[in-house]
Write a structure and sequence with these properties.
The complex is a heterodimer of chains A (306) and B (284). Chain A has 306 residues and is mainly alpha-helical. Chain A has 2 domains: 50 residues; 228 residues, MetI-like fold (Orthogonal Bundle), CATH 1.10.3720.10. Chain A is built from 13 helices and 2 strands, in the order H-H-E-E-H-H-H-H-H-H-H-H-H-H-H. A two-stranded antiparallel ribbon of chain A has the order 1-2. In chain A, helix 2 crosses helix 13. The longest helix of chain A has 43 residues. The two termini of chain A are 41 Å apart. Chain B has 284 residues and is an all-alpha fold. Chain B has a domain of 169 residues: Orthogonal Bundle (MetI-like fold). Chain B is built from 15 helices and no strands. In chain B, helix 6 packs across helix 9. The longest helix of chain B has 35 residues. Chain B is globular. The chains are: A mainly alpha (306), B mainly alpha (284). At the A-B interface, helix 2, helix 4, helix 5, helix 6 and helix 7 of A face helix 1, helix 2, helix 5, helix 6 and helix 7 of B.
Amino acid sequence: MTAVTSMTREQKKELGRIKRRSWLISYAMILPAIVFLIAFVIYPTISMFIMSLYFGNAMNPYKRFQWFKNYSVRPDFWVALRNTAEYTGMALVLVMVLSILFAQWMYKSRKLNNVAQTVFFTPHLVAGVSAGFIWSWLMSSQPYGLFNTVFNALGLSSVRWLDDSSTAMFSIVLMNTWKSVGYYCLIIMSAMKSIPTEIYESARLDGSSSIKTFFKITIPMISPQLFFLLITITTGSFKVFDSVRIMTGGGPGDATRVLSMYIYDYAFERNNTLGYACAAGILMMLMMVAVTVFDFGFVEKKVHYQ
Amino acid sequence: MIKAIKNYFVQPGWGLQLLSDIIKILLMLAFIFPFYWMLVTAFKGYTESMAVPPTLFPKVWTLEGYRSTFNSGLNILNYAKNTVLITTAVIALQLVIMVPAAYAFAKREFPLKGLWFGIVLVAFMIPLQLTYIPVYLRMQDLNLVNTLWPQILPMGADAFGIFMLRQSFKQIPDEIIESAKLDSAGEIQIMTRIMLPMCKSAMVTIAMFSFIGTWNAYFWPLVMTRNESVRPLTMAVEKLRDVEMGIRWNSLMAANTLLVVPILIVFIFASKKIIEGFAYRGMK
């Protein structure tokens, strides 16, 4: 510090020049990224909120200002919300339970487990469109549908899968579970592998049963990752679109019409309803924020960090 | 006796192990089966694809499915070209935009750094479902809707990618940069000669995420385009369903293989790297 204070005015000027030059270079480095993020993420979010206050369509979004009228919820919004909640609930239970079971089942380093890990992960890489079509084909309720052929061979009666409003949503969840369980299992597994083996050793010496060890040691030790899964699966389920559009298109009836399809319909497929779509989008984001905040506020307190 | 049973479950004997392994292998086959079913359906004739009961293995291998895909009136090659162009452009654009930004956030000091990084943080939390309507409207204003740009430009800066790259730049010790500066290396030289080679692994991971994400993209092209000539392969597959005579599953699955097989090939060659990348993304 003394060196700085004893600097001559010339030296200070020179230092300032170098500093400014360095700042300029830094700004040049971040500028493109910031410009892109503002133009394609931040600005559209604000714009979406403003449009949600107007009556209009894609040609002219600002026909008439009407405050929060678009936020007065319509009956079909409740349907979409209920469907989304139904999807989210089923996906959460199925994916969480299965990925924990799979991880527990495969976490020992063995040749077979490494292969299994790769195999279970593969569907995660495939396009939602492709996966949706393959499963629609497997689940076809025509006589040549493969799942029903297998069911009939086992003496079970045929299921109408995607064509029945009571099974359609579950069928989509089933497909997406196949698609994502390998990925979530991977995260749980790397968390399990980081648990020190001494802990298991001492639990075993204390005569703890494996079921007790699992619930008293493994689950608490991986709770940060479980927490991550909870948030990722919930917010991911709120956004589900590709597989629903491919497999059922929202049908039969409105049985699988989820929030993101509702927004899409009102934005592009109907006239003068852009404001509704924007309002629903804002509501969806608020719900995602609420879930995240809720999780951080309440669930995280129960999460044990080592 | 009870203790013996307990010990048995802590350290399962070979019988249980065998049972567990058999179930595991069966489950692996079940997971792979949808892909198998796609492939064999693609090589079945139209009549055989609808046979009751379905044949597990095609009686006659035929390219009929592929032929009807390419003769469906859809310009499949053009869709495929779009997919390849968009994917390549997105990867290139992302690297050019994100690498310098991540480097500056990791290793340089400048005024308002916190504020700018805050923008990245906020952007990270906003879903595509929220941004597409305004982005589409602007693209429409700019007369870009019938070009590939709406599918490339909005993907230019990915907030998560900036995070991840920043993390790997941070792991490079400052001393290396300092000593390079003493050797009078310029900013650009430091970046290209020292930083980039040391972060190659992170960059490959980022490029891989972009490749998978863009190649598989369906929602974004659906909302950004109004013209078949600029649409990617995912939308061609969807389009094949809407043919007049009802779905021809063999043709649909043939088109599907064009979408799935490149991804599977990449995965076969880089499965370790890809799995590590995804695990890392989950842990962050």
